[in-house]
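Is nicotinamide-adenine-dinucleotide placement plausible here? Inputs below.
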Amino acid sequence: MEISLAGKVALVTGVGPNIGSGVALALARYGARVACNDVDETAVKACIARIERNRGEAMAAPGDVTAESAVQAYIGEILARWGRIDILVNNAALLGGRGVLDETAADFERAVRVTALGYFLNTKHVGRAMAERGIRGSIVCISSSNGWSGTAGIIAYAFHKGGVNNFVRAAAMDLAPYGIRVNGFTPTAPNPDNPELLAERARAGLGTGGVLTGGPGGIGGPAGDEPWRRPSRWAGQRPPMVPMGTTGTPTDIGHAVAWLCSDYARLITGTDLVVDGGARARNFAYAPAPAADLAGPLPLIGLDETEI
Ligand SMILES: NC(=O)c1ccc[n+]([C@@H]2O[C@H](COP(=O)([O-])OP(=O)(O)OC[C@H]3O[C@@H](n4cnc5c(N)ncnc54)[C@H](O)[C@@H]3O)[C@@H](O)[C@H]2O)c1
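Reply from A.M.:
I modeled the complex. Tokens:
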């Protein structure tokens, strides 16, 4: 049995070069036509080019996910061109932020707004387009491990990603009568694997990326220098903290989201799928063996044939 999304149309929001682009590419490689949304038109163009050079079909759906008129406009354009939407991946979000003692009202509101209104408005208008056409589609809301447990230094992100998890359950109840499924997907600090992004980072003399590879962010205090409240993030080697040695890549996320949007998952709704090498399941007191002592996962099945 092969998973196929042939004949289906997908909309992915926030197709920046990391996770959004990886999910959009995966849906295209499994056969869907993919509409690519972002507020940054360069990101939209890059994602479309990535899909097309991997023999997929894509269109632009640029716009701000928090503006209802923009959301309705790009959904209207997708329907005018392809006549249907079967899959929505709510992915656009603002990452980063500050801790509760330091966050500003304006930045807190901005971050919450992108996820809250973005996920709501796209679910509402894509849900309507599905229901009106009798399409028993799939809506996936990208959450984060920070929506399930606490990390210091990102209070707005923690708030809106926690909100995503119960939004999924409630929207699943609203849309179940129409045969439309709504699920969450929880990434945990995947390692970027978009060849273009990696090449760009290499040219700029940066590492391979991933949110945990930066330096420790100071949090709290007027000068942010209270040692007992730092660091907010682990800046050392990550693999020893993950039971299988790696949290995976956007390609791993893409394979799983594609399956979740396929007809094989027809009764899966209101739940959360996590692909992270066991990171979220780990009890704080369990220390995995060093990566060199682990068998490691099976080899990754790549989706991007780009040679850089
Ligand atoms: N990177 C990680 O380690 C990680 C971990 C867990 C969860 N996630 C989640 O995965 C998703 C993607 O993360 P990423 O690392 O690829 O982030 P990213 O910042 O690279 O991409 C997010 C994209 O959303 C777009 N965007 C922001 N505001 C928008 C708006 N108002 N309208 C339309 N587009 C908008 C940005 O322009 C950007 O291209 C997010 O939901 C994030 O919370 C990421």
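Short version: The chain has one domain: 9-204+248-279.
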